[in-house]
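Weekly sync, protein design subgroup
Attendees: M.S., D.O., the rotation student, P.L. (late)

Item 1: inverse folding check
M.S. brought a backbone from last month's batch and wanted to see whether the design step gives back something sensible before we order anything. D.O. pointed out we never logged the input encoding, so this time it goes straight into the notes. Structure tokens as presented (441 positions):
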């Protein structure tokens, strides 16, 4: 009997200890969950002056900037002021600085309008006027003056440039001009503070062209996602005189829809990604969309930090600015070599990058004498490019993450200036952390 009592007593104490441990554990877990929930609702500190430089992104940015110098000689622009005939030019393979063929100039005007061209140029000039506002006020004023003129022309004579100039449709066909009008109006509002531009973007034109509630990909052909992020800053920062503007609310909710589509753990995240995590939309120039998306994510993260916005909600999940920045870094890192091929798609960066870039100037030796057609021997050569197109961002991988390094593979191996603009923007966002400017005026 005595032994049984002792055994039973020990078992009772053991059960009591186990129950007590479970109760304590439950309390600790509940407290931790409550604290974590409180921290989720607490915004991260506003970044102060630029923080420590991330050398990887700084080095890549320095390289990416060089491609613009290379392209100064290539006076072809199929999407804007058209120089040359795209069909004839594609029948030639020669260094652009040595071209002697006839290169006609095509322009948009009242007779042959092209809304996308005029509105996109207006947006570029308006945004550039902000860059030069303090350092060169006269130039800034000139840019802004012409931005207004171009926008007025684009709005007064609405017509697609690829319909009026059909020879460009094969290369850069526009799917609509409404997004460019909103893009231009949004930048003009930021540059001038003139409420009429904001009313233009948030009123009937917004209803017609902005695709509110339908997230789209940011690209050279579709500016809606960029406009949504740009205008969301006004409601995030509580800009003067914009409270109660329902259009702005639609832009912000649409911008958050774009972000929710990018974050891998979001319920509405796009499933269109490579095994290595790259957002993947198109065989042609596959890197355009992920780099553009990453740039917008980094920008929106900065807006959230500066405005002390703790989180965005995607379904029943919430995400912090750091989650957006993590996504942006994942896309940048993939481009710079953290991918199954262990190859950088930014020419000149890292130990391994494309050697057969589809680029006339890079493929023909500097001392070679070629005409229009005999230069094709350099296109077909099996030797790597004699000149490195430093800073060029090539088209990128296929969905199965293979890359065919061949000059004839323009689908994957061709660098573009609009790709360069995107990677420069993304890398600039990731080099360091700092708060976003709340107002441009």
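Designed sequence read out in the meeting:
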């Amino acid at each position: 009997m005595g032994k049984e009592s002792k055994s039973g007593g020990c078992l009772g104490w053991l059960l009591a200890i186990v129950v007590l441990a479970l109760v304590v554990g439950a309390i600790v877990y509940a407290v931790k969950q409550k604290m974590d929930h409180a921290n989720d609702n607490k915004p991260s500190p506003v970044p102060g002056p630029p923080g420590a430089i991330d050398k990887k992104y700084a080095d890549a940015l320095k390289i990416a900037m060089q491609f613009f110098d290379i392209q100064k000689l290539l006076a072809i622009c199929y999407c804007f002021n058209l120089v040359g005939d795209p069909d004839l030019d594609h029948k030639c393979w020669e260094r652009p600085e040595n071209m002697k063929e006839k290169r006609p100039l095509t322009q948009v005007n009242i007779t042959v309008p092209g809304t996308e061209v005029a509105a996109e140029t207006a947006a570029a000039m308006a945004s550039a006027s902000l860059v030069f506002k303090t350092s060169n006020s006269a130039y800034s004023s000139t840019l802004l003056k012409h931005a207004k003129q171009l926008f007025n022309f684009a709005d007064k004579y609405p017509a697609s440039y690829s319909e009026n100039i059909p020879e460009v449709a094969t290369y850069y066909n526009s799917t609509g001009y409404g997004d460019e009008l909103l893009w231009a109006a949004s930048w003009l509002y930021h540059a001038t503070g003139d409420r009429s531009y904001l009313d233009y973007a948030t009123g009937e034109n917004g209803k017609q062209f902005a695709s509110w509630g339908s997230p789209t990909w940011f690209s050279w052909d579709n500016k809606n996602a960029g406009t949504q992020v740009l205008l969301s800053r006004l409601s995030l920062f509580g800009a003067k005189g914009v409270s109660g503007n329902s259009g702005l609310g639609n832009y912000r909710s649409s911008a958050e829809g774009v972000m929710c589509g990018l974050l891998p753990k979001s319920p509405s995240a796009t499933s269109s990604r490579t095994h290595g995590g790259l957002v993947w939309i198109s065989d042609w120039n596959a890197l355009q969309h992920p780099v553009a998306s990453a740039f917008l994510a980094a920008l929106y993260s900065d807006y959230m930090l500066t405005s002390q916005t703790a989180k965005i909600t995607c379904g029943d999940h919430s995400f912090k600015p750091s989650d957006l920045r993590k996504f942006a870094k994942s896309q940048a890192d993939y481009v710079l070599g953290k991918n199954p091929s262990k190859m950088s798609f930014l020419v000149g960066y890292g130990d391994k990058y494309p050697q057969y870039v589809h680029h006339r100037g890079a493929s023909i030796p500097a001392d070679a004498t070629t005409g229009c057609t005999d230069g094709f021997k350099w296109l077909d050569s099996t030797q790597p490019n004699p000149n490195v197109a430093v800073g060029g961002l090539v088209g990128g991988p296929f969905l199965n993450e293979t890359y065919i390094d061949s000059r004839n593979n323009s689908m994957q191996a061709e660098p573009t200036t609009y790709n360069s603009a995107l990677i420069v923007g993304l890398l600039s966002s990731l080099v360091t952390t700092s708060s976003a400017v709340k107002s441009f005026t």
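Discussion: Confidence is low (pLDDT under 50) at residues 75-80. The CA atoms of residues 335 and 345 lie 5 Å apart.
Action: P.L. to compare against the previous round before Friday.
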